[in-house]
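User: Run a structure prediction on this.
Assistant: Running it now.
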Amino acid sequence: MAQETLNLEQEVVLVEELGNARVVTLNNPKQLNVISPKVVVLLAANLEKWEKDENAKLVIIKGAGRAFSAGGDLKMFYNGRNSKDSCLEVVYRMYWLCNHIHTYKKTTVALVHGISMGGGASLMAPMKFSVVTEKTVFSTPEASIGFHTDCGFSYMLSRLPGRLGEYLGLTGARLNGKELVAVGLATHFVPLEKLPELEKHLLSLNTGDEAAVGSAIKEFSTDVQIDEESILKKQSIIDECFSKDSVAEIISSFETEAGKEGNGWIVPVLKGLKRSSPTGLKITLRSIREGRKQTLSECLKKEFRITINTLRARISGDVYEGIRALTIDKDNSPKWDPLTLENVEDEQVNLVFEPFEEDFELKVSENEQDRWDGKYEDSAYCHQ
């Protein structure tokens, strides 16, 4: 094991080749292992190499410090706000990578403690085995800052029970490790104190046999019992409110439920909803609902269009205002434009969903023989 590399903080992705196992450590703990352009490039290059290497049979991914990954580097997007398409390359690469993580041919294991949010969670949920702990915190809070549920989450959230996907996407509500297992966004719950021992055991197996790996993880895992106050116990209310046709109707229905005895939990959630970007909420609701009828690749192509159009501020600059309020000035007082849901017209929302010219769409191949084609380097964007 190359122990000496473990202290090189500038190495944002650490890679170890141990027998038939490949271990990836997201290694930017001071920034909660955010996904930077370098992270995306290194992950994609290594995953492609290992899928084609018959000696690589098991891939483990984990995060250094107290987070798995807090998602995309928001400051990077903010700093590029005045330069046209400054972040297009990393966005293209990330969505392309998401497709390969979902469809990876080798056995994959995510060991997830701490924060796993937004795009960071896209490195967890699609794995064949995603192991969470009592310290795991998941959320998709993008709508609150004028963005949308991306990196494949319009596909994943739309397939959760009932209207839970709409609820999580619109409110940014958090799930803990046990809740993630209960809804199927993670496969196993393992107490944090056992995680190092589990990793050591997986490496000692020196195999990628899915049954053997699954059996080994099960030995360390515990059955989950959902707490009575868990949001998963509120499914009937969520289904009732979040099945409404529009964001405005969802909020109105949620307000009605909040007035009933025993529903005090709704009040802070409702407050957060009302503080969120009206544009982000409308786009997110439509994207998740479309996701129910779309394949993974269709969802990723759609999300790519939405992201690029959002970063281009085609209908609103809310994403930059949201990042400013949350991470730059930290005043938590965003000035949304438009300010209200009524002023976000459906015709405007349609614009961010419009397909690009064919050459400028995200290229994800569904053919086995050329599944690693479609890289950014070969796209029309790179040759503009």
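The domain at 1-227+271-378 is CATH 3.90.226.10 (2-enoyl-CoA Hydratase; Chain A, domain 1).
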